[in-house]
């Protein structure tokens, strides 16, 4: 068996598959229950791939004593014995509700990350170490190298269960969505910025011609504007590269980025440039609010999924007390999982699949068991009401996942990101305005990086909207000129309104969103219908001259496979206990109807 990642899609022996995973934090449970919980994930949820962080502070609390990997080696061997694959996540920072984000306390004495005011960036009251600082860089490389040599080398596929590795967490320190002014103004960070300036411009004269300034040395240049945004992108890529190389693992490497905040969308767009990561693959997480009740959360989720192909590596399936009580019911997570897949995700993760109940205060002194409070598998190993929902999703994508990924989203246009504009705050508002306008018209869209996109991919879209700004580099101007010469319509956001096409899928009744994917060569399509939390009526969706009716609960969702215009497999949520909503889940099209006999879910693979 070969495992590779192609354009964000995991391929097994050359066959693309939706990457369905569940997290199990072995370090929060007693070793004697590991086998039972892993079997529960496999048998009750249909999970074949486990994800798990390896907390540095758990394995090496003392800087003068080598890491002790006894328990994780045993855990990985058990996964292999049970036929489960693993995505290993060695940090060095993991968050995961652990003390100091999983870092050992002793690294807090190293050179800290600084914000624009010169204040340390802290986690749990301790300053976070500057990733490029010599002391931390050396100790992090030692930690990651030890993980590679002592844990992963023997456990890597095909000799063991590890098929992929994740570096860092949501940026570097769960800081991927922070403002550009939040970091890194440490001496090592600014040294990297000055080195970048010299590489980009060579001399002060070249810089001055480009910026209309009169500096005598590049060391005088302030860390701000488009160059500071570009620095953030290269800084992130550089740390990812260093940490990945330190492990030396021979499986694909992936990262998980937290979605942008509403206020700092530009900062996120300037920083997160997956095409520059040199073989390290993109993934994202959730943790932003209940999508079915919050248009801002919906927009942020869609943008994260569309930025680049890759899996959702952390969907909240278990935390209601820590985040929002809506997650006590599986409907919230089901809705968000389907939205991510409709918007472009290539897989999803159940975070976490199991509630755990045993850990030391040295690992986590802030949270009481169980962790999390309402996972699909309870802390005693029994399956909860969420389990059959996860299993239905697993079964659906096990059967149809390759075909689903082959299907292309039906879009009404594309938005062209220009990262230098994001670095000056001139891209995010335009993108959000475009997103809102397209969703109001019932249209899906593509998100393209103008510094990376090919002319062929651009030509696939009849209309391209770009943000307004002062200038674009010559290569991008030539690309856009060629696009227009080839018949494309170019719209500058804020200076014109693009004529929107009629949507191929449109919600005609009910408060909901709908997305459509169509296969390029087969008479197959997938419709995703996402009910808002306040919807109390059947949802009617106009689809190619026919009307698709979906009956789902408040905040519910449906994924429907169509073959030659007829109903095939479908997943429809009928109950949402959190919102007190229960209906006889149903879907009908062209005189054919599938429904339940009582208020419950409807799952037919």
From TrEMBL:
<dbReference type="Pfam" id="PF22369">
    <property type="entry name" value="GLMA_2nd"/>
</dbReference>
<feature type="domain" description="Glycoside hydrolase 35 catalytic">
    <location>
        <begin position="12"/>
        <end position="108"/>
    </location>
</feature>
<comment type="similarity">
    <text>Belongs to the glycosyl hydrolase 35 family.</text>
</comment>
<protein>
    <submittedName>
        <fullName>Beta-galactosidase</fullName>
        <ecNumber>3.2.1.23</ecNumber>
    </submittedName>
</protein>
<dbReference type="InterPro" id="IPR054746">
    <property type="entry name" value="GLMA-like_second"/>
</dbReference>
<dbReference type="InterPro" id="IPR029062">
    <property type="entry name" value="Class_I_gatase-like"/>
</dbReference>
<dbReference type="InterPro" id="IPR031330">
    <property type="entry name" value="Gly_Hdrlase_35_cat"/>
</dbReference>
<feature type="domain" description="GLMA-like second">
    <location>
        <begin position="436"/>
        <end position="494"/>
    </location>
</feature>
<dbReference type="InterPro" id="IPR017853">
    <property type="entry name" value="GH"/>
</dbReference>
<keyword id="KW-0378">Hydrolase</keyword>
<dbReference type="InterPro" id="IPR001944">
    <property type="entry name" value="Glycoside_Hdrlase_35"/>
</dbReference>
<keyword id="KW-0326">Glycosidase</keyword>
<dbReference type="Pfam" id="PF01301">
    <property type="entry name" value="Glyco_hydro_35"/>
</dbReference>
<dbReference type="GO" id="GO:0004565">
    <property type="term" value="F:beta-galactosidase activity"/>
</dbReference>
């Amino acid at each position: 068996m070969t495992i590779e990642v192609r354009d964000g899609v995991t391929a097994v022996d050359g066959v693309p598959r939706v990457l369905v995973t569940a997290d199990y934090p072995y370090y929060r449970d007693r070793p004697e229950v590991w086998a039972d919980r892993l079997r529960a994930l496999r048998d009750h949820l249909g999970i074949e791939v486990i994800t798990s962080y390896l907390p540095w502070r758990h394995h090496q609390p003392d800087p003068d004593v080598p890491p002790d990997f006894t328990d994780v080696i045993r855990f990985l061997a058990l996964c292999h014995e049970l036929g489960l694959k693993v995505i290993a996540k060695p940090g060095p920072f993991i968050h995961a509700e652990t003390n100091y984000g999983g870092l050992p306390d002793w690294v807090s004495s190293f050179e800290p990350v600084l914000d624009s005011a010169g204040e340390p960036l802290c986690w749990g009251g301790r300053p976070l170490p500057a990733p490029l600082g010599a002391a931390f860089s050396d100790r992090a490389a030692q930690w990651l190298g030890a993980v590679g040599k002592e844990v992963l080398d023997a456990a890597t596929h095909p000799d063991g269960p590890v098929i992929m590795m994740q570096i860092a967490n949501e940026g570097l320190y769960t800081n991927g969505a922070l403002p550009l002014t939040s970091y890194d103004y440490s001496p090592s960070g600014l040294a990297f910025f000055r080195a970048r300036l010299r590489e980009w411009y060579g001399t002060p004269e070249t810089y001055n011609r480009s910026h209309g300034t009169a500096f005598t040395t590049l060391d005088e240049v302030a860390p701000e504007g488009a160059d500071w945004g570009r620095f953030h992108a290269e800084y992130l890529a550089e740390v990812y590269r260093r940490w990945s190389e330190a492990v030396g693992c021979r499986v694909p490497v992936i990262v998980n980025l937290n979605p942008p905040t509403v206020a700092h969308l530009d900062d996120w767009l300037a920083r997160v440039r997956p095409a520059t990561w040199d073989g390290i693959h993109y993934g994202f997480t959730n943790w932003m609010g209940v999508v079915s009740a919050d248009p801002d959360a919906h927009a942020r989720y869609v943008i994260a999924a569309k930025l680049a192909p890759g899996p959702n590596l952390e969907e909240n399936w278990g935390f209601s007390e820590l985040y929002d009580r809506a997650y006590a019911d599986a409907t919230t997570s089901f809705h968000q999982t389907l939205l991510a897949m409709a918007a472009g995700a290539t897989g999803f993760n159940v975070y976490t699949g199991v509630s755990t109940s045993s850990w030391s205060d040295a690992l986590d002194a802030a949270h009481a068991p169980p962790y999390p409070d309402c996972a699909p598998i309870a802390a005693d190993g029994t399956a909860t009401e969420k389990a059959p929902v996860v299993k239905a999703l697993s079964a659906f994508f096990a059967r149809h996942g390759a075909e689903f990924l082959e299907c292309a989203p039906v879009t009404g246009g594309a938005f062209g990101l220009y990262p230098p504009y994001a670095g000056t705050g001139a891209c995010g508002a335009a993108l959000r305005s475009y997103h809102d306008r397209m969703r109001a018209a019932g249209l899906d869209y593509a998100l393209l990086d103008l510094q990376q996109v090919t002319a062929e991919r651009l030509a696939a879209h009849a209309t391209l909207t770009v943000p307004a700004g002062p200038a674009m580099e010559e290569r991008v101007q030539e690309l856009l000129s060629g696009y227009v010469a080839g018949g494309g319509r170019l719209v500058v956001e804020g200076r014109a309104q693009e004529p929107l096409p009629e949507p191929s899928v449109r919600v005609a009744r009910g408060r909901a969103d709908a997305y459509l994917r169509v296969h390029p060569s087969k008479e197959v399509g997938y419709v995703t219908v996402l009910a808002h939390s306040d919807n109390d009526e059947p949802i009617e969706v106009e689809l190619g001259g026919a009307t698709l009716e979906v009956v789902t609960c408040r905040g519910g969702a449906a994924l429907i496979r169509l073959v030659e215009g007829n109903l095939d497999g479908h997943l429809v949520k009928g109950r949402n206990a959190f919102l007190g909503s229960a209906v006889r889940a149903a879907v009908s099209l062209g005189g054919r109807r599938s429904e339940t006999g009582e208020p419950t879910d409807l799952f037919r693979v």
